[in-house]
Structures are given as C-alpha cells and as structure tokens.
Input
Amino acid sequence: MCVPTSGAVWSKLPEGVKFVEADNGGTYNEENHTVSWSVETEAHTEVTVSVKVKVLAAASGTDLNNGANVKMDEADINTISKNGPDEDETTTNFVPGKVVL
Output
C-alpha cells in the first residue's frame, strides 16, 4: 500500500520571460516572478508540472536557464539535494535547469 505524500514545487522564472500559464494548478506570483505548485502523490510515482512563458524581445540572443525546487514530506527524487544536515523529515531538492533556445 502506498501512502500519499504531499509537497511543493516552485520555480523562479529567469529575467527576460513573461509568465503565460502553468498546468496542474500552478500559480504565478508576479511580485517574486515565481510559479508554485502543491502536489500530492504516492511514493515512487512521478508528478510532472510545466510552465509556459513568452520570451521577451529584450532577451533575444541570450541564454535563459530555468530550474525548479522540490520539497516533499519524504523525498526520493532524482534531483540535486540542497538540504544539508537537517533532520526534520523534509527534504528540499533542486531540479537542474533547462536551457531555453
């Protein structure tokens, strides 16, 4: 039996893009240019979230990189850990960024 796990995913959008939409209930915070999702899943299953942005003319010809952070009750996530020596039963992980062409 799999026990549901709750968590959060958030992504600070790079300068030079405008938020268009996010799937799976993602919400955009204009003040800090961040998209966030609340997720609930069972152990050892995947959840995919995505965000659509418009690249602004000012960013034309530049490299735009974007990544995401994941925080789960119990994390077994294929990401890079940034949580250090904490023992609080939560883990924050960083999903390596993707280059937008």
About this structure: The chain has a mean pLDDT of 74. The two ends are 42 Å apart (CA to CA).
